[in-house]
TrEMBL record:
Record-given protein name: Bardet-Biedl syndrome 12
Gene Ontology cellular component list: cilium
Organism placement in taxonomy: Eukaryota, Metazoa, Chordata, Craniata, Vertebrata
Domain of life: Eukaryota
GO annotation, biological process: chaperone-mediated protein complex assembly; eating behavior; fat cell differentiation; intraciliary transport; negative regulation of fat cell differentiation; negative regulation of stem cell differentiation; photoreceptor cell maintenance; stem cell differentiation
Amino acid sequence: MAFRAVNSRRHIGLQQLSSLAWAGRTLLGPMKACKFVVDESTDESMLICSAVRLMESLDLTSAAGQLLNETIQAQSKEFKTGMSTLLFLVGAWSNAILECLQQNVPVSAIVSVMSEGLDSCCEKVQCLQVSVHDVNKELCSSSVRPSASESKASQIPCGSSLNRQIYLCFQKDISASEELVPRNSYFPQEADCNFNKGLVWPLASFGSVASLVRSVDDGSTSVISGSGVSASICKQKKLTHSRYFSPGAKSHVSSHLGDSQVYLSGQSAYTCECYGLGHLAMALSHGSQPSMKLLQSIVAYQHERAECSGSSQFSIAEIATCCLPGLPESYSCVCPGFVTLVSPEQATVIKHFQDKSLWIVLMDGDLTEQYRHLGFTKPRNVKTILEYPSLQEGGSRTSWLSNMLDILISLEVNLVLVKGNVCENLMERCIANNILVISSVTQNVLSAFGEVTGAQPVTYLTQLNASCLGSGVRVELWKGCDERAMELGQLVPVRIKVQGISLLTAVLTTAVASKMCLIEDQFWTFVYRLHHALRDGKVFLGGGAVEFLCLSHSQMLAEQCLKLAGKKAVKEFRSPQLAAFSSEYKAVVLQALATGWSQYLSVVMYNTAKTASEFEARTLIDHHLQKAADCGSPSAYVLKEFRRGSMFRGCSIPFTDNEEGVKVYDNVTAKMEAWRRALDLVLLVLQTDAEIIIGPRRSQLLNSRSSSEFMFL
């Protein structure tokens, strides 16, 4: 065992936190700088752009590093956002507290004053919270209208060099006249009024939707004026310029539409009647266009579905993702139903399912002989001699495989969705009998298919009977925007759909395989930002407005501690125990808290190219701090500057090609929790006084350069 005392003047744990956080400085703000992570053992590389992936990639052997990783993972698990802020503030406040220690400030004073200072900041910034309803109303009312030149652009076909179209592909719906055998006597009470209406290919810049309508059935092409699209989409929520979307043919859309494709370009689509929460999603995305367009497509689809069914307007449980590396990013889309990857052997089975209604089975565990459900208890009076027979002694294994296959064949099962793993031998036998088995299906996907098909999840196939099956499912090869089925090396994307399903799959594509993880992380981050905003019912003013007010407030408290004495110096604090510390100590600690906010703002401004350097950013921040102090009310100054959009607009998020953008907003709970977790971690490490290392590392430490710092016991 090795023992190392932590030097109180140059705290080793805080230095480790600072060093680890430094690696993530460029991840702060909307304009993040990506990092390559190379695995030397396999020579594989991955492109990352999040604090979570960074921590997963680092060799965190120190205790402080492991605590930092656990803190970031906890933030990610609960909020999926705010991890970069947490990581940066950990480093900034660690450095600031190290300076306090150099000035002989007691640890107890640092802990108490920093905690109370952050609590005071959290109370102060409540005035910068705005209700989601008010934000969405303001954003929708301030939508940028298209200019005359943009209206002319609506006449340009989508194949032109402008490439400003959002490509909508309406897949063929399940016709009501098709025969379905009611084995379970279960059918949805009402069909989804927009079933399969939202396979969106967002290729365009913001604010433009297409205007070319082409029918594949007759090869004809017609052009819709920009004003016509605006009226039909935003007010009536259906196209009125095509014979397929006339009011009289509303009930026959699925049977007449076929494989028609609709292109829309040149008209601003971002109105509250059309996209519902689309503007809020855009303001929370902070300017990442590809993921923002996918999220807006989901919002539009769920908004229209909510109006028809009365369901929740936005639901994360109804969203899934499918990553397709090797395809251009222009192939990214939102597709109703479930899109997943299967092997080429499984794809051959799907060819037998074309235009057929299938019977489906849902399994909420593994489809293996060894699987036992959680909580399974063996009988007490039974002694197990051999639980898992080897493959060589294949009598039992062959019997299990035959029994499972017989159950599926006898019930005429076509499709099995399994939450966990699937036995490879059973998979091969199912393929030979034209039964498609898909593994690693998430719980929300199983629930979505269970709701509309009537299928009841089972844990073991031996529990399966006719009443557990679902019906009406269709499987097809997923097709890209060029209407061709795709094969990605050893995997083939397929689409599973059923009438009335609420599930949407965001198909994420990129030609650079190492970028796939980055794109998926960004997408889910924006989805959860919108989710948390709706759950909180309010958002913060973005662009650094909240952190600026925290900085101003912290400096004001520090100045008061220097000017006032006795009780007057602590009126801003709730804890009377702080009176035990001198005003000088309080001022130093509060200034350390303010230093963290100042560094945060300067790095964000530098990363977003608002300033040429961090020094210039700090100069600009000091200028605004002085103006806020002269104003007399820093919060009023922040509100005024945010409305003007001069300092706190953040990254530009244009509606169209115009220079004018939209204000940005941040989550309330996620941001404040990131602050608290960052400070809690720093103060926790600050209060440690020793590092005790046990295990087989004794010889490594003896031969290391830092061996003189340890005492070996």
